[in-house]
Amino acid sequence: MDDLDRWTPVSVLGTGAFGQVHLAWDRTDRRWVALKRFTGQDELGLLRFVIESRIRVDHPHLVRSLAFRLVDDDAVLVTELARGGSLRQLMTRHGALPAPWVAAVVGQVLDALATLHAHGVVHRDLKPANLLLRDAGAVPPHVLVADFGIATWRTVSLTGVGAAIGTPGYLAPEYLDAGTPSPKSDLFAVGVLAAELLAGQRLVHQSNSTPDIPADWSTQLPMPGGLAPKLAAVLRRMADPDPAARYPDCAEAAEALRHALPGAPGVVPGIDLLDGLPAGWTADGPADAPVDAPTAVPPPVSTADWTQPVTRRAVTGPPTPAPGLPTPPPGTPPPGTAPWPAPPVPLPPKKRRRAPWLAAAAVLAVLVGAGIIWAVTANHTTPGGPTPTGTGHPAAPQPAWTPEPLAQCALAERGAERTIEGRSARCQRTSATRQDWVAEPAGGFPVSNPSGPFPGEACGASPDTDYSPTGVPLTCVKRKWTARA
């Protein structure tokens, strides 16, 4: 079979500015995986996608990359599936989470970061949406740190000097002031998200709620009421505005956290991404498909997708890691494949991209895989807010979309999706001080950022770019968000 055809997308798990994540079935290894396909339109986005695929640090609490494919205008990253969903989804469902459970999960995150930092990687985008549960309702919980799309690796940087990227609300003050990430800026983010999980809502300094951040960070992170004093003290030190006052590293913070709140974490009912699969699928794979059945060619995933007969130029994975980065042992695929069930969920249609930036990405993949690292210091940045959500490949700036509010939602729910009055809806900003559940328009939500800025609002360093909540492409011009032409 075509190499890309070994993974069949079944449903969409999420979308962002540069990629769409699918629940997919691996026909070769006969297991469920998460498949992330690049859907961006610019060279920098692809380079970030390639770098994400090359970060291969082995730790039980880091999501494992299983394969990477760059074939013509398709870039695909395959990772292990975290069936329990994200901590953001869990908090949206349950609100405030119990302190022993949060302490156990945060301790695992700190352990993973200690290993990541030892390999020269700073994550830069730690938040509940990027922390996944391997299984639903497991005791003890098993968290996986995911999404290295804007991580820095050794001396690799795709951000302009003095520019900070990440999600407002979790960015350390010294990172915002100088634009230089460090392990201590990751530690700050963990302290913030831990307090958020305990409160069931965002608990951030107001000045860290938009990309326009003042330099004065004298106010400590607020804490939810009723916390054990030792636990509150540990979290406050992790998220202290002064980096010198924080723990020296994540390993020491993890040890302090375990001493502050020892004991069993208990159980938090979770979600299972394999519940409610489309017809023809079960948690074990294709329904009613004998393992020893002859191999069948799957139906095309769309009329213009991976199965097009084209001349291919490929960079494949798993990649050879740079020195010091261990490679996870490859799995042994079971013999035989099964006939395929009903047609899977179609991927967005591809668009032919320009050969020069595809070639650039291929070169970057080869050089990074060989351990040849360099710094890119051109003035490029990615959106300073949360990863924009949406589908499709806009070839030109989209017109403003007028949302239809259904009900008010909470700040912590921004970007979440649910059914309201029988209609699919998501929580997004509708004004400078309000967010609402808005109905999904015909054809789906456009590429947009539910927490993004509106035209005219203040921004940070130029030439930052973003999307408004209504799908208007924006760029930062003279510290004001301006619609892109």
Report on the architecture of this protein.
InterPro entries: Kinase-like_dom_sf (IPR011009), Prot_kinase_dom (IPR000719), Protein_kinase_ATP_BS (IPR017441), Ser/Thr_kinase_AS (IPR008271). One of its GO terms (molecular function) is protein serine/threonine kinase activity. Its EC number is 2.7.11.1. The chain is α+β, with helices and mostly antiparallel strands and about 475 residues long. The protein has 3 domains: about 5-80 and about 275-370, Phosphorylase Kinase, domain 1, CATH 3.30.200.20; about 85-260, Orthogonal Bundle (Transferase(Phosphotransferase), domain 1), CATH 1.10.510; about 405-485, no CATH class. About 20% of the residues lie in helices and about 20% in strands. The chain contains 8 helices and 19 strands. It has a 6-stranded antiparallel β-sheet. Strands 13-16-15-14 form a 4-stranded antiparallel β-sheet, with no helix packed on it. The radius of gyration is 22 Å and the shape is globular. The two termini are about 45 Å apart.
Give the low-pLDDT segments: 154-162, 209-217, 291-343, 349-357, 365-396
Compute the gyration radius: what is it?
22 Å
Structural class: alpha+beta
- Bulk shape: globular
How many alpha or pi helices? 8
N-to-C order of helices and strands: EEEHEEHHEEEEHHHHEEEHEEEEEEE
What is the assigned CATH homologous superfamily of the largest domain?
Phosphorylase Kinase, domain 1
Topology-level CATH name of the largest domain: Phosphorylase Kinase, domain 1
The helix content is 10-25%
Spatial sequence of strands, sheet with the most strands? 1-2-3-5-4-12
